[in-house]
TrEMBL record:
Ranges for domain HTH tetR-type: 1-59
Entry's transmembrane regions: none
Keywords: DNA-binding
SUPFAM superfamilies: Homeodomain-like
InterPro entries tied to this protein: Homeodomain-like_sf, HTH_TetR
GO molecular function, one term: DNA binding
Name this polypeptide is given: TetR/AcrR family transcriptional regulator
DNA-binding region: 22-41
Length: 222
Protein backbone atom coordinates (compact mmCIF):
# COMPACT_ATOMS: atom_id res chain seq x y z
CA UNK A 1 0.00 0.00 0.00
CA UNK A 2 2.85 2.37 0.93
CA UNK A 3 4.47 1.71 -2.44
CA UNK A 4 1.25 2.35 -4.34
CA UNK A 5 1.11 5.89 -3.01
CA UNK A 6 4.81 6.59 -3.60
CA UNK A 7 4.61 5.26 -7.16
CA UNK A 8 1.50 7.36 -7.82
CA UNK A 9 3.30 10.46 -6.57
CA UNK A 10 6.32 9.68 -8.74
CA UNK A 11 4.00 9.37 -11.76
CA UNK A 12 2.57 12.84 -11.13
CA UNK A 13 6.06 14.32 -10.72
CA UNK A 14 7.18 12.67 -13.94
CA UNK A 15 4.13 13.76 -15.96
CA UNK A 16 3.12 17.08 -14.39
CA UNK A 17 5.90 18.24 -12.05
CA UNK A 18 6.21 18.43 -8.28
CA UNK A 19 4.20 21.65 -8.08
CA UNK A 20 1.13 19.76 -9.34
CA UNK A 21 1.19 16.96 -6.77
CA UNK A 22 -2.01 16.85 -4.69
CA UNK A 23 -3.47 14.31 -2.30
CA UNK A 24 -6.55 13.91 -4.50
CA UNK A 25 -4.45 13.12 -7.59
CA UNK A 26 -2.35 10.63 -5.68
CA UNK A 27 -5.43 8.89 -4.32
CA UNK A 28 -7.08 8.74 -7.74
CA UNK A 29 -4.04 7.17 -9.39
CA UNK A 30 -3.44 4.72 -6.53
CA UNK A 31 -7.12 3.75 -6.49
CA UNK A 32 -7.85 4.66 -2.88
CA UNK A 33 -9.55 7.55 -1.13
CA UNK A 34 -7.60 10.53 0.20
CA UNK A 35 -8.17 9.61 3.84
CA UNK A 36 -6.36 6.30 3.37
CA UNK A 37 -3.14 8.13 2.46
CA UNK A 38 -2.96 9.66 5.93
CA UNK A 39 -2.86 6.19 7.45
CA UNK A 40 0.61 5.86 5.92
CA UNK A 41 1.94 9.41 5.57
CA UNK A 42 1.56 12.24 8.05
CA UNK A 43 1.87 14.94 5.37
CA UNK A 44 2.18 15.31 1.62
CA UNK A 45 5.79 16.55 1.85
CA UNK A 46 6.81 13.04 2.92
CA UNK A 47 5.21 11.54 -0.16
CA UNK A 48 6.96 14.07 -2.37
CA UNK A 49 10.25 13.31 -0.59
CA UNK A 50 9.94 9.54 -1.08
CA UNK A 51 8.84 9.88 -4.69
CA UNK A 52 11.66 12.34 -5.44
CA UNK A 53 14.21 9.82 -4.19
CA UNK A 54 13.19 7.56 -7.07
CA UNK A 55 14.54 10.21 -9.44
CA UNK A 56 17.88 10.25 -7.61
CA UNK A 57 18.85 6.74 -8.69
CA UNK A 58 20.89 7.75 -11.74
CA UNK A 59 22.85 10.29 -9.70
CA UNK A 60 23.51 7.71 -6.98
CA UNK A 61 24.69 5.12 -9.49
CA UNK A 62 27.03 7.60 -11.20
CA UNK A 63 28.63 8.60 -7.89
CA UNK A 64 29.06 4.92 -7.04
CA UNK A 65 30.85 4.34 -10.35
CA UNK A 66 33.27 7.18 -9.59
CA UNK A 67 34.24 5.67 -6.24
CA UNK A 68 34.69 2.22 -7.79
CA UNK A 69 37.37 3.53 -10.15
CA UNK A 70 40.92 2.72 -9.12
CA UNK A 71 42.42 5.03 -11.73
CA UNK A 72 41.15 8.20 -10.03
CA UNK A 73 43.01 9.88 -7.17
CA UNK A 74 40.98 10.64 -4.01
CA UNK A 75 40.92 14.37 -4.76
CA UNK A 76 39.62 13.79 -8.27
CA UNK A 77 36.92 11.48 -6.92
CA UNK A 78 35.83 14.23 -4.54
CA UNK A 79 35.71 16.81 -7.32
CA UNK A 80 33.92 14.43 -9.68
CA UNK A 81 31.33 13.68 -6.99
CA UNK A 82 30.69 17.41 -6.57
CA UNK A 83 30.42 17.84 -10.33
CA UNK A 84 27.80 15.09 -10.55
CA UNK A 85 25.86 16.62 -7.67
CA UNK A 86 25.83 19.97 -9.46
CA UNK A 87 24.90 18.52 -12.83
CA UNK A 88 21.98 16.52 -11.50
CA UNK A 89 20.74 19.20 -9.13
CA UNK A 90 20.55 21.81 -11.89
CA UNK A 91 19.01 19.39 -14.36
CA UNK A 92 16.29 18.46 -11.86
CA UNK A 93 16.17 21.27 -9.27
CA UNK A 94 12.68 20.57 -7.92
CA UNK A 95 13.67 17.00 -7.03
CA UNK A 96 16.89 18.04 -5.30
CA UNK A 97 15.03 20.76 -3.44
CA UNK A 98 12.48 18.21 -2.22
CA UNK A 99 15.20 15.82 -1.06
CA UNK A 100 17.78 18.17 0.44
CA UNK A 101 16.16 21.50 1.24
CA UNK A 102 12.36 21.32 1.66
CA UNK A 103 10.92 21.36 5.19
CA UNK A 104 9.72 17.84 5.95
CA UNK A 105 8.43 18.56 9.43
CA UNK A 106 10.07 15.36 10.62
CA UNK A 107 13.44 13.64 10.91
CA UNK A 108 14.63 13.29 7.29
CA UNK A 109 17.25 10.72 8.21
CA UNK A 110 14.52 8.38 9.45
CA UNK A 111 12.52 8.89 6.26
CA UNK A 112 15.60 8.15 4.17
CA UNK A 113 16.35 4.92 6.05
CA UNK A 114 12.75 3.83 5.67
CA UNK A 115 12.83 4.45 1.93
CA UNK A 116 15.91 2.28 1.40
CA UNK A 117 14.45 -0.42 3.64
CA UNK A 118 11.51 -0.58 1.21
CA UNK A 119 13.69 -0.23 -1.91
CA UNK A 120 16.95 -1.98 -0.87
CA UNK A 121 17.82 -2.79 -4.49
CA UNK A 122 18.55 0.90 -5.09
CA UNK A 123 21.72 0.74 -3.01
CA UNK A 124 22.95 -2.63 -4.26
CA UNK A 125 26.39 -2.11 -5.77
CA UNK A 126 27.09 1.06 -3.79
CA UNK A 127 30.64 0.87 -2.36
CA UNK A 128 30.61 0.51 1.42
CA UNK A 129 32.84 3.57 1.80
CA UNK A 130 30.21 5.90 0.38
CA UNK A 131 27.03 4.28 1.74
CA UNK A 132 27.14 6.73 4.68
CA UNK A 133 26.99 9.51 2.07
CA UNK A 134 24.07 8.04 0.13
CA UNK A 135 22.14 7.28 3.33
CA UNK A 136 22.65 10.80 4.70
CA UNK A 137 20.09 13.56 4.10
CA UNK A 138 22.09 16.35 5.72
CA UNK A 139 24.23 18.03 3.05
CA UNK A 140 26.84 19.13 5.58
CA UNK A 141 27.30 15.61 6.91
CA UNK A 142 27.45 14.17 3.39
CA UNK A 143 30.21 16.60 2.45
CA UNK A 144 32.15 15.98 5.63
CA UNK A 145 32.17 12.21 5.13
CA UNK A 146 33.77 12.61 1.69
CA UNK A 147 36.30 15.18 2.93
CA UNK A 148 37.39 12.77 5.66
CA UNK A 149 38.67 10.49 2.87
CA UNK A 150 41.06 13.29 1.89
CA UNK A 151 42.19 13.76 5.48
CA UNK A 152 43.05 10.05 5.71
CA UNK A 153 45.12 10.40 2.52
CA UNK A 154 47.00 13.36 4.00
CA UNK A 155 45.52 15.71 1.41
CA UNK A 156 43.72 17.96 3.86
CA UNK A 157 44.16 19.15 7.43
CA UNK A 158 41.50 17.90 9.81
CA UNK A 159 41.11 21.38 11.30
CA UNK A 160 40.12 22.77 7.88
CA UNK A 161 37.44 20.21 7.05
CA UNK A 162 34.42 22.00 8.52
CA UNK A 163 35.29 25.35 6.98
CA UNK A 164 36.04 23.89 3.55
CA UNK A 165 32.82 21.91 3.74
CA UNK A 166 30.81 25.05 4.52
CA UNK A 167 32.47 27.07 1.78
CA UNK A 168 31.71 24.54 -0.94
CA UNK A 169 28.12 24.01 0.19
CA UNK A 170 27.46 27.74 0.41
CA UNK A 171 28.68 28.18 -3.15
CA UNK A 172 26.30 25.47 -4.37
CA UNK A 173 23.39 26.75 -2.27
CA UNK A 174 23.80 30.29 -3.56
CA UNK A 175 23.78 29.23 -7.19
CA UNK A 176 21.04 26.66 -6.63
CA UNK A 177 18.70 29.14 -4.93
CA UNK A 178 18.99 31.68 -7.74
CA UNK A 179 18.59 28.91 -10.31
CA UNK A 180 15.55 27.40 -8.59
CA UNK A 181 13.87 30.80 -8.32
CA UNK A 182 14.58 31.67 -11.96
CA UNK A 183 16.89 34.50 -10.92
CA UNK A 184 19.79 33.23 -13.01
CA UNK A 185 20.44 33.23 -16.74
CA UNK A 186 22.78 30.23 -16.47
CA UNK A 187 21.80 26.90 -17.97
CA UNK A 188 22.65 23.72 -15.97
CA UNK A 189 26.00 23.27 -17.74
CA UNK A 190 27.13 26.84 -17.11
CA UNK A 191 25.97 26.80 -13.49
CA UNK A 192 27.93 23.58 -12.93
CA UNK A 193 31.01 24.98 -14.63
CA UNK A 194 30.95 28.11 -12.47
CA UNK A 195 30.60 26.19 -9.22
CA UNK A 196 33.32 23.70 -10.10
CA UNK A 197 35.68 26.56 -10.99
CA UNK A 198 35.36 27.88 -7.44
CA UNK A 199 35.42 24.48 -5.74
CA UNK A 200 38.53 23.39 -7.62
CA UNK A 201 40.28 26.60 -6.58
CA UNK A 202 39.26 26.09 -2.96
CA UNK A 203 40.56 22.53 -2.97
CA UNK A 204 43.78 23.58 -4.68
CA UNK A 205 44.46 25.91 -1.76
CA UNK A 206 42.76 23.90 0.98
CA UNK A 207 45.86 23.48 3.12
CA UNK A 208 46.90 27.11 2.81
CA UNK A 209 43.79 28.50 4.51
CA UNK A 210 43.84 29.39 8.19
CA UNK A 211 40.57 29.14 10.06
CA UNK A 212 41.93 29.54 13.56
CA UNK A 213 39.29 32.09 14.51
CA UNK A 214 36.47 30.28 12.72
CA UNK A 215 33.11 30.41 14.55
CA UNK A 216 31.38 27.15 15.40
CA UNK A 217 30.24 25.27 12.30
CA UNK A 218 26.65 25.92 11.25
CA UNK A 219 24.20 23.21 10.16
CA UNK A 220 23.49 23.66 6.44
CA UNK A 221 20.91 20.89 6.18
CA UNK A 222 18.07 23.29 5.41
Amino acid sequence: MWKYFVEATAQIIREEGIENVTIRKIADIAGYNSATIYNYFSEISHLVFFASLKFMKQYTEEVAQVYKRNDLAPMEKYLRAWELFCQHSFQNPSVFHAVFIADLGSHPEDLLKHYYSVYPSEIIGIPEEIKPVILEHNISKRGRVILEFLVKEGLMKEENVDAINELTIMIWQGMFTTFLNNRSTYDPEEATRKIMLYIREIMRNANHFSFADEPQSADLSS
